[in-house]
Amino acid sequence: MILFWFRRDLRIGDNVGLYNALNSGKKVLPVFVFDKNILKKIPKSDARIDFIYKNLQKIQLEFFKYGSSILVAKGNPIELIPKWSEKYKIESVYTNEDYEPYARKRDLEISEKLSKKGVKFKSFKDQVIFAPNEVLKKDGTPYKVYTPFSKLWISKLESEHIREYSTINHLNNLHKILLPNIPTLEEIGFIKSEIKPIEPTYSSDLIDKYDSVRNYPSINGTSRIGVHLRFGTISIRKMVSKAKKSVINTFLKELIWREFFMHILWHFPKTIHSSFKPQYDKIEWINNENDYKRWCDGMTGFPLVDAGMRELNKTGFMHNRIRMLTGSFLCKHLLIDWRWGEAYFAEKLLDYEQSSNVGNWQWVAGCGVDAAPYFRVFNPTEQLKKFDKRHEYIRKWVPEYESTEYPEPIIDHKFARSRCLDTYKAGLKT
User: Fold this and answer.
1) Could you tell me whether strands 28-35 and 120-124 are parallel, antiparallel, or unpaired per DSSP bridges?
2) Do the Cβ atoms of 330 and 337 come closer than 8 Å?
3) 42 to each of 236, 290, 308, 347, how far by Cα in Å?
4) Spatial CA neighbour of 286 closest among 243, 221, 326, 332
5) What is the mean pLDDT of residues 23-41?
6) How confident is residue 96, by pLDDT bands cut at 50, 70 and 90?
7) CB 57 within 8 A of CB 30
8) Closest by alpha carbon to 72, among 32, 128, 119, 100?
9) What is the average pLDDT score of the chain?
10) What's the confidence (pLDDT) of residue 372?
């Protein structure tokens, strides 16, 4: 029998690992582990756990139709997967690849444990179009600049890379077993969240006009697919297939950016905690805790920054244009370490993707691959004029704007820019 381990692929259709398991000629036992090593680091009302839970319920209901069910438990997968393999006389464990440093280390340990028991561990490419070792420079080294990476990525893309792996006709190959109910949120140590992800929008019309609407936070001009790609409720192949049909490739390029950052983190895992450009770790951040709290709470006195932070705190989402602005403001106006911002976004964002989060924060701080130069300091006032000139987004999230209740700016822009440039220059000279 085959054990299929669901992870960042919470869907039945177009699931490469599940497809291969169901076509192995063996019965398939599906499982999911609420990894206690991950859970211990996040709030008890985390909306992402609620999202995972609801999608596991959907999968369970579908499996019930075939007289099967999914085995779900909270624990350490390094212990549980080998334990289940022994209990259910498993020949092979199938799963989809996960490229984050923690996942790679975990999977290696599990593979070694299973090997000692004579059980094979097979992983499949599912959450990306190209794995980190498939888009490389001619000398075999990874790209550190997005544009040549994206050009090669596009040139390599063929129909085989975006084919659909149809599982629906093979679900009778599931192991016929009715397992205990999925543990409740309370049983795994969590409570129901009030935050609900907005349904994704990826119509052909949106993709076609994506370039002209994506920068304006007051309109519904983005897809909201981030959380669905993060947890695999939508197939990346489906998204790339739709994007390819458009004559405008802006949406496709955003998907490639996601993959670029995944590749960077895979090749350079140290960037989780260290700047890609080591000299930037010599910058002397001020790290004023009061300033940081005002940034977190959306009380900086810069309305576009505050609107973004309040939206994030309330909904678990922030528009990408505003993510760049709030990130730049923290690092360059307030001179607070990008790692503080990265950690806050990691806690709050429903679509948190470690590689993209780290990559984008290092981008705004100037210390990452293909980053904005350190002397590029976003002007929040000019950004407001350009991307929310009617103040629609601001008024939604900062209702006290232009009243006496709204705080004065935490810092003068001209002063902040000058201080930023001096601080960066001094750090980079040492």
Assistant:
1) unpaired
2) no
3) 26, 23, 22, 7
4) 332
5) 96
6) very high
7) no
8) 32
9) 96
10) 81
Burial of 270 (0-12, 13-18, 19+ CB in 10 A): exposed
Question: What is the number of alpha carbons within 13 Å of residue 372 lying toward its C-beta?
Answer: 17
CA distance 54 to 393: 30
Taking the C-alpha atoms of residue 216 and residue 14, their distance in angstroms, rounded to an integer, is 33
Q: Are 338 and 323 in contact (CB under 8 A)?
A: no
DSSP 8-state symbol, 181: P
- pLDDT at position 371, please? 83
Amino acid (1-letter code) at residue 125: K
Domains and CATH numbers, the chain: 2-126 (3.40.50.620), 128-163+201-267 (1.25.40.80), 272-429 (1.10.579.10)
pLDDT in tens, 291-317: 999 999 999 999 999 999 999 999 999
**Rounded percentage of the chain residues whose pLDDT exceeds 70:** 100
DSSP conformation letters of 332-384: IIS---HHHHHHHHHHH-TT--HHHHHHHHHHHHT-STTPPPTT----HHHHH
Q: Tokens 């350079």, residue?
A: 268
The residue type of 5 is W
| DSSP codes, 250-288 | HHHHHHHHHHHHHHHHHH-GGGGTS-SSGGGGG------
Residue type, 71: L
Residue 345 corresponds to which amino acid? F
Q: Which residues contact 271 (CB under 8 A, 6 or more apart)?
A: 264, 265, 358, 359, 362, 368
Closest of 176, 183, 222 to residue 322, by C-alpha: 222
pLDDT digits (tens, 9 = 90+) for 362-400: 999 999 998 888 899 999 999 999 999 999 999 999 999
Residue type, 144: K
Render pLDDT for 227-261 as a digit per residue (tens, 0 to 9): 999 999 999 999 999 999 999 999 999 999 999 99
Alpha carbon distance 125, 406 (integer Å): 50
β-bridge mates for residue 6, sequence order: 32
Tokens of 144: 């550190």
The H-or-E segment that residue 155 falls in is helix 146-156
